[in-house]
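Fill-in record for Putative NADH-flavin reductase.
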Amino acid sequence: MHVLVVGASKGIGLEAVSVALRAGHRVRAFARSADAIALTHANLEKRRGNALDPADVEGALDGIDAVIETLGVPVRDLMAPVTLFSEATRVLVPAMERQGVKRLIAVTGFGAGDSRVAINWLQMAPFRLFLGRAYDDKGVQERIIKESGLDWTIVRPGVLVPGPPSGRCKALTEPSQWRNGLVSRADVADFVVKQVTSTQYLRKAPVLVSR
């Protein structure tokens, strides 16, 4: 598959680039700082661009089979209004529909959309204080995706931690199962890349935890 990773320069996006290359996919790594990606591979293309720029996004989608969307904002911006997730998705989704690129795997987080109801009362106050603005926008992002005609999977990791893949990653699909927990970025990347060629979680939004 020819995979576009949006937000590929760091975090889960960068991990997903590595995992996808190891899985034999061709990867177009799209980010404003794509030139700074240290990876080199015959099947890797680094594409500089802005996820909010329709022309950049249209160009990045040329010849693509599936898209992995892994956006993030700096910690320093979390106390201000956050609109990146919804605005970028409002650019990406119609561009994919115009170009006939159907498969979208988008990483949001536990607490986005309807998974917010599973946050316990002890966690809710700090969640709203530090992450509320970002997750309100991720909720809008999820709604845009769910209302599209794409073949989407939304991935909601718990608390992200460093480290190698654990092999214990659980995908919790039922609201009664949803809970917070730790999960490594490597585990999330491994799960996300597997969805490129799987329909197991098609039009589902699992919560990911490993412990």
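KEY FINDING: The two ends are 31 Å apart (CA to CA).
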